[in-house]
Specification:
387 residues; mainly beta; 6-stranded mixed beta sheet; 3 helices; elongated
């Protein structure tokens, strides 16, 4: 692995700078060779200033002061310090600090990705011979080498992120044991599995509606950038796509592209393309618009009122039918002391004189009237009228 790392060191790689943060890589970039962080002055570090689309003169700064002006785009550094470069039209590069510590723990300058194989190197001042090297992460010893100065981690995992340092025994020095400064190792994750919400893959909306689409990724180290495509043409950037007062022109397929550039190396840009979302815009309808705007609680109350009204009408119809089917009311029984009259039929005899003033043998019908609670009345209570 040391041989592989040595060969890779012959190729200039872009220096990974923690100062990039979430704002992304700067336009002007500073390459370092050999590709180790931090670089050390006894390695005769070569710095190269690069930018996109500019070919002007380069201004170099050391420790915040102009060091070389109108110079070439590369320099060889033999002194410790913090270096930056500036090119007209592209701005100032991230800083590179060249170390002169007596013991240095170095990591590769490119971004460290999950799944990679990475080598840590413990180096003494001016390449002093060091033995019994131990590597530690967050105070925990990872390994100890009696003959050798490099430790290989493979495959890299997220939990390998942390603060590292090395300790060693140095021959021919008054102080037999040295310990390096802390170096922060960050394991990055390429962006993957971009999706658009809301789903599903087909979404029908009405003209005049407002639609918001959100793009997200399952994994990916920050910063993650998003680009929106409508019918394969770029229309917007950012995690949200807001469509207001849509019409038929918004119909078609939508996709989002998620990217993250890990480190300054433009070749280590990772890309994830979401599945297509088909959006169909149909002519608007007042009824559809109203229903779409009614909340669930209001719709429930409306249905409840309809049910109550239907029950009330049914109850009234049922009561009316029951009244029509009921038998007529019977007369109430007579109160005590009341007199009931019977129908009396009088039949005249044949040949009788119409001037007769007395009735002879009249036909009289008597009726017995019951008293209170059905008891027979006294004879004096019974009357008969003869007509």
């Amino acid at each position: 692995m040391a041989g592989d790392t040595g060969m890779a060191g012959k190729v200039a790689l872009l220096l990974w700078a923690q100062t990039l943060g979430l704002a992304g890589a700067q336009t002007t970039q500073l390459l370092v060779d050999p590709p180790w962080v931090p670089p050390v002055k006894w390695d005769h570090v070569k710095l190269t200033c690069r930018s996109l689309g500019t070919t002007g003169a380069t201004t170099w700064y050391k420790d915040g002061q102009i060091w070389r002006q109108e110079g070439e785009d590369h320099v060889t550094v033999t002194e410790s310090g913090t270096y930056t470069c500036d090119r007209s039209g592209s701005g100032l590069s991230p800083p590179v600090t060249v170390s002169d510590e007596r013991l240095v723990l170095q990591v590769p300058s490119q971004a460290l990705l999950e799944g990679d194989t990475v080598t840590l190197r413990c180096q003494g001042l001016w390449n002093d011979l060091v033995t019994s090297v131990s590597f530690n992460c967050e105070g925990k010893e990872l390994g100890r080498l009696h003959d050798g100065t490099e430790l290989t981690l493979s495959p890299l995992q997220l939990q390998y992120s942390g603060r590292y340092h090395c300790k060693c025994r140095v021959e021919y020095r008054a102080e037999k044991f040295w310990e390096s400064a802390l170096v922060t190792v960050t394991v990055h994750v390429p962006v993957a599995n971009a999706t658009i919400s809301p789903g599903p893959l087909s979404h029908q909306v009405h003209a005049g509606d407002n639609v918001t689409l959100r793009c997200s990724v399952q994994v990916g180290s920050a910063p993650v950038n998003f680009t929106w495509l409508h019918n394969r043409k770029e229309v917007a950037r950012g995690p949200l796509l807001e469509l207001r007062d849509i019409d038929k022109g918004h119909s078609g397929t939508y996709q989002c592209v998620a990217t993250n550039q890990l480190g300054q190396d433009r070749h280590r840009v990772f890309r994830a393309l979401s599945p297509e979302l088909a959006l169909e815009v149909t002519p608007g309808s007042p009824w559809v618009t109203v229903v779409a705007g009614v909340g669930g609680a209001l719709l429930f109350l409306l249905l409840l009122m309809v049910v109550i009204l239907a029950w009330h009408l049914w109850h009234r119809v049922a009561a009316r039918k029951n009244q029509q089917r009921a038998p007529p009311d019977l007369p109430a029984p007579p109160e005590e002391g009341e007199v009931l009259y019977t129908h009396v039929v009088v039949t005249k005899r044949a040949g009788a004189s119409p001037r007769a003033t007395t009735f002879q043998d009249p036909q009289v019908t008597y009726a017995e009237l019951r008293g209170h609670q059905g008891r027979p009345r006294e004879p004096g209570d019974i009357s008969g009228n003869v007509l």
